Amino acid sequence: MAPDQITFDFNDSSGKKESKTKHQNGKKEYGNNLNFAGKIKSPRGRKNLKDIIDIDLIEIPEDEILFKKVYYSIGDVSKMFNENASLVRYWENEFDILKPKKNAKGDRFFRPEDVKNLKLIHHLLRQRKYTIEGAKEYLKSNKTAAEKFEMIRSLQKLKSFLNELRASL
Prior knowledge:
Elements: E1 5-11, E2 17-23, H1 63-66, E3 72-73, H2 74-81, H3 85-94, E4 101-102, E5 108-110, H4 112-127, H5 132-141, H6 145-168
Helix pairs in contact: 2-3
């Protein structure tokens, strides 16, 4: 029996023993990829805040590596930001600074500049908790927002390097 389970033993009037098992959270568990109704969980849809442990998990390569490729597919970009491709498409529709190229089939291909703009949008929406409208206003009023963002990023990297250096002493 698993350690997270509690067993209750009940005796009915006929003396028969009945055993029920209940998890500590009060729900039956059907397996790791099943929900409460017994259906398989879909990977689609919005992620819960519980599922997003650390926002800094975006995996964007450094500029030298980023600018080696001319275009990135929407799948590659969504993996970099750990977001759904539909959310990246939504951000493309909402923000004018994102202009991915589309082929005849309609597939989106993001330039490295678009990836850097997406990084700024992701920072505003996810880390600084701006609304869509607030982020649009910020980008319109601050034309040098990208430069400020890059400066903040470089200072954060410098700070983490200095903290590591101090810890190693």
